[in-house]
């Protein structure tokens, strides 16, 4: 970093902290030069840089002043325009390399896929684990390994019923988190070379699964507001080559898109008409901000073409790794694959979750969690409006905990990620969410992976880094 950039960043920080307020006069170029033992040219360059960021203004014969900053309303990203051709996928090496970066306690984890662990009822879960294991009969440690603990499946079935969905316990398979359920479902439905429909951008896990199973991906235009384009879905299904769809209709990762109920019903009708199954990734639906919980596509599935996959990992206990698939006609196929791969999800974890649900309080925990998420979303959106360039586009989802940020095309998200890590902030770069490395100028940010003050501080740091990259181009 040059001396003038360092000086500009120091003044930038003083303005954002409130130490320098709107209307305050900055020291003259000569005064700053003498106080900081810098050349007047260096100080002038720093002031010019701050002017270009909209932070200060020069007044004739008066000097430089902190200017009023009313953040402009943030623009929203438009519907994506992915490649219209299917792709093989080779993304796993990039994902592993990025996920293996050092993430010490000093790093602000805006690139994390998980919530701040202090938001989970850790003590209550620990008590439930102890209680469940004391009560667990020895034979229960080896029974129901393939399908999962009956009591937990009954509780999940009851939660389906509350959503207006009939899901018998025999249709529910407990898995090692949702990813296990999703991967087993994809494996049960495909053969190498088959074509899978995905959203664009999409979470990198389905891309990894497609690569592992030697499948092909076709990513479809997706709106940050209401999800994947049904016109594109129908066109792809009508071509007759699609084997399965893998969508996240409720608070999609990374866009946060929520497909309206009427659109979900239309999607279910399309699947039935073309007899193509949907793997519904539904791990964020409980994290809604609106007045009522959204319904899944599964609620509109009259003919059994939807495999519904979810978990407690995003809302309650990430490390317990308890998920499930409500698989309908494919239950036995998925169960057979599960026996051949992992055999069973952790019995102690299942017993602990079951005891916790039986004690009550899960829905109260979810209400409190949603309030925290909504507050953190507002903090990060405001921080982006304050510190990022004016042409930045940002989603403002009605649930989940991610923002999708679209930057100037002059920004390389991978380069920004490296600079951010050096500055103690992580992010997830856009190319991870594409089969063909698109979205190179986009990033995903987690607005509730750490404390509120760290979220704001980390976001401001990223904003300064983006400005600095643009200043150099």
UniProtKB/TrEMBL annotation:
Species the sequence originates in: Acidovorax soli
HTH gntR-type domain: residues covered: 1-69
Chain ranges passing through the membrane: none
CDD domains per the UniProt record, alphabetical: AAT_like, WHTH_GntR
Keywords tagged on the record: Aminotransferase, DNA-binding, Pyridoxal phosphate, Transcription, Transcription regulation, Transferase
Top-level lineage group: Bacteria
Protein name: DNA-binding transcriptional MocR family regulator
Gene Ontology molecular functions: DNA binding; DNA-binding transcription factor activity; pyridoxal phosphate binding; transaminase activity
Presence of keyword Glycoprotein: no
InterPro entries: Aminotransferase_I/II_large (IPR004839), HTH_trans_reg/aminotransferase (IPR051446), PyrdxlP-dep_Trfase (IPR015424), PyrdxlP-dep_Trfase_major (IPR015421), PyrdxlP-dep_Trfase_small (IPR015422), Tscrpt_reg_HTH_GntR (IPR000524), WH-like_DNA-bd_sf (IPR036388), WH_DNA-bd_sf (IPR036390)
Family classification: In the C-terminal section; belongs to the class-I pyridoxal-phosphate-dependent aminotransferase family.
Cited SUPFAM superfamilies: PLP-dependent transferases, Winged helix' DNA-binding domain
Protein's UniProt keywords contain Transcription: yes
Pfam families membership: Aminotran_1_2 (PF00155), GntR (PF00392)
